[in-house]
Design a protein that fits this description.
Methanol Dehydrogenase, Chain A; binds calcium ion; 29% strand; 2 domains
């Protein structure tokens, strides 16, 4: 891998790897079943799963420009209608039997807002309740849509400060009379909070600030902020927001009228840069249990006190009633990024179990008496780089895990990889830019003979870069089975009452496992990378399995070997399967374009090229891949002559803002843009035909 590629990969990895899905709050215990991604699909069984074929496929997703974005939502089906969201927060209502579109709601998200997201313009789903579909948009609005007509009932601005990089990719959740939503942006200098709005009117019911604000800016908004403030240095970097964003998991328990919110990492990441005197820094990386009507806190559990590793606790949370140590317990379960699987009494907040579901080196164990992790010396990278497990991608990220009560097992999509953590101590606030205070890379992708890396790996578990599915017993804290290795970053999981576990993967397969044994029963190759969790439903006596496909999110700047998106087109698809369905369509080959010559007039000198390289990494590399790689976004070494001509109009003038290529005129000058262009044009010189070279150079060739 080239130096630029490594830099680009590192920058992609450092992002918040954002997140959730949404579902209807239905009658009976469906609400609990759905947090578990457990479906009563009883007709589709281990014995006949190989008879699944296509019932229908929907491909008419809104695409802006030429960039195909990630699809992360799990559909919701209510009364024969499927509601699903796609890139740019567009919602589609489809006939669940035929796939025919009934309506489409496009919130017309401001394309400039793509710059305010760490990880693509994805959306992880809608909520459906009492004839209303709720979606939260990338640019921070919450919308109530009439489920029948697709017309907007109301639209509310959820953002408290529009000068900061707040964005929403998560699904809202209906909780009693309110609908609750958080936001993302902890990698870019924001203060996290969650808000509840009256589900009929969209009027603000309550707002819970997850971390304290700058004390100079005004009094604490509610008592919990004051309580949290005691766990922060009074001289914290309030200008960098504090973080703690609730970007994915929100669940609701109607029995106790409690809404549970998973919160994210600090801003910047290392605590010694954020809150120099230390402290737990509540409520970063925590599970918050709030009263759904008032927003007042009932209890909290912080999974990673003093977080310095981007160990968000925003991963999906499952509500279940299980017998624990001989006593029936109402529990909430989570496998956050930090590598421990937590079982917590969801009424009292008592920690029942916390065991490692992957390799963990930042902590030895969790003390069940105090509820606190026992942190290792290896976790501290304040005095130099360290190799730490798990990576910033976490042991588990947003692709949902699933729980099958009959089997008593949780199925976790586990990422097994360490990362090198290296502090970057100069952190100035820069609008709409990544401000993490840390860099690093995956050793498994680096040169194994690099002496610096050899030193970091010494004495540590052998680095890996793998994805597996693990069946976890929450009562014993033990792994029952582990799947074969898949390419890194696979999809979410669902499980059925008939004993199936279903998961998609980045290599374009949908795999069906036996829930008890882990045996692979069937694989369907669709040729499109899958991140979203599948779901199941029934219409007129026929059972279906649906899954959205299309790779993207935190990894869409850079497609790796083994990923379907590397070699095949990556268009968004919604696939629905039934027994006896038709042959499944394989995605076509990825269109390729050769390196093209840059018009000569853009050539720069060596100093400009070097300066351009630095600016490129700071501003462009979050999205655009290196010269040899191909991600979702246009390869800038393959620009057409017209694009070269229009370079400044695009970079500074915002000519492609609608498609997500925002204007950078607030942080880049025309000289900066010229130097970035010089960096991009440099490798193309050898492609330039002689007759296009400057006269002086032509002469010297003859
Ligand atoms: Ca993060």
């Amino acid at each position: 891998m080239s130096g630029v590629s490594k830099l680009l990969l590192a920058s992609a990895m450092l992002l918040g790897l954002a997140a959730c899905w949404g579902e209807a709050d239905r009658n009976g215990n469906a609400w609990m079943r759905e947090t578990a991604h457990y479906y009563p699909a009883s007709d589709i069984t281990p014995a006949n799963v190989d008879e699944l074929g296509t019932a229908w496929e929907f491909t008419d997703f809104v695409v802006r420009g030429s960039t195909h974005r990630g699809v992360q939502a799990t559909p919701v089906v209510v009364d024969g209608v499927m509601y699903v969201s796609g890139p740019w927060s567009v919602v589609y209502a489809l006939d669940a039997k035929t796939g025919k579109q009934i309506w489409q709601y496009d919130p017309d998200v401001d394309g400039q807002h793509a710059r305010r997201t760490c990880c693509d313009v994805v959306n992880r789903g809608v909520a459906v309740d009492d004839g209303v579909v709720y979606v939260a948009t990338l640019d921070g609005y919450l919308v109530g849509i009439d489920a029948k007509t697709g017309r907007e009932n109301w639209k509310t601005d959820t953002i408290t400060d529009r000068t900061r990089s707040y964005a929403i990719t998560g699904a809202p959740r209906v909780a009693g009379g309110n609908v609750v939503i958080g936001n993302g942006g902890a990698e870019m200098g924001v203060r996290g909070y969650a808000s509840a709005f009256d589900k009929k009117t969209g009027k603000l019911a309550w707002r819970f600030f997850i971390v304290p604000g700058d004390p100079e800016a005004g009094p604490d908004e509610h008592p919990e902020v004051t309580e949290a403030r005691a766990t922060w240095d009074a001289k914290s970097r309030w200008d960098l927001g504090g973080g703690g964003t609730a970007w994915d998991s929100i669940v609701y328990d109607p029995d106790t009228n409690t809404v549970y919110i998973g919160t994210g990492n600090g801003s910047p990441h290392p605590i010694w840069l954020r809150s120099p005197a230390g402290g737990d820094n509540l409520y970063l990386s925590s599970i918050l249990a709030l009263d759904a009507d008032s927003g007042r806190k009932k209890w909290h559990y912080q999974t990673t006190p003093s977080d310095s590793w981007d160990y968000t606790a925003t991963q999906n949370m499952i509500l279940a009633d299980i017998e624990f140590d001989g006593k029936p317990r109402k529990v909430i379960m989570q496998a956050p990024k930090n590598g421990f699987f937590y079982v917590i009494d969801r009424v009292s907040g008592e920690l029942l179990s916390a065991e490692k579901y992957t390799t963990v080196t930042w902590a030895d164990r969790v003390d069940l008496k105090t509820g606190r992790p026992v942190i290792t010396a290896q976790s501290n990278f304040s005095d130099g780089p360290k190799l730490i497990w798990p990576s910033q991608a976490g042991g588990h990220n947003w692709p949902p895990m699933a729980y099958n009560a009959e089997e008593g097992l949780v199925y976790i999509p586990v990422l097994e990889a360490p990362m090198t953590f290296e502090m970057h101590d100069k952190q100035d606030y820069r609008p709409f830019s990544i401000i993490q205070g840390v860099g690093g890379s995956f050793p498994a992708l680096a040169d194994p003979n690099d002496p610096a890396l050899v030193k970091l790996v010494q004495g540590q578990p052998e680095p890996k870069f793998e994805q597996v599915l693990k069946a976890w017993n929450p009562k014993t804290g033990k792994i029952e089975w582990t799947s074969k290795v898949m390419p890194f970053w696979s999809g979410g999981v669902m499980t059925t009452s008939s004993g199936l576990v279903v998961q998609g993967s980045s290599d374009g397969h949908l795999t069906f496992y036996d829930a008890k044994s882990g045996a692979v029963l069937h694989r369907i190759n669709i040729g499109t990378g899958i991140m979203a969790a599948p779901m199941a439903y029934e219409v007129d006596g026929t059972q279906y399995i649906a899954v959205a496909a299309g790779f993207g999110g935190a990894f869409n700047s850079f497609f790796m070997e083994g990923w379907a998106a590397k070699t095949r087109e990556n268009n968004a698809r919604l696939l629905v399967f039934k027994l006896g369905g038709e042959k499944v369509r394989l995605a076509g080959p990825r269109p390729t374009r050769p390196l093209t010559a840059a018009p000569v007039k853009f050539r720069g000198n060596a100093a400009q090229v070097e300066r351009g390289a630095t600016l490129y990494v700071q501003n462009c590399a979050r999205c655009h891949a290196g010269p040899e790689e191909s991600g979702s976004y246009p390869n800038l070494w393959k620009m057409t002559p017209e694009t070269h001509e229009a370079f400044n109009d695009i970079v500074l003038g915002g000519a492609f803002a609608y498609a997500g290529m925002a204007s950078f005129s607030d942080v880049l000058s025309p000289t900066d843009a010229r130097d970035i262009h010089a960096f991009l044009a440099k490798p193309l010189e050898s492609k330039t035909p002689d007759n296009q070279k400057p006269a002086a150079e032509r002469k010297s060739l003859h």
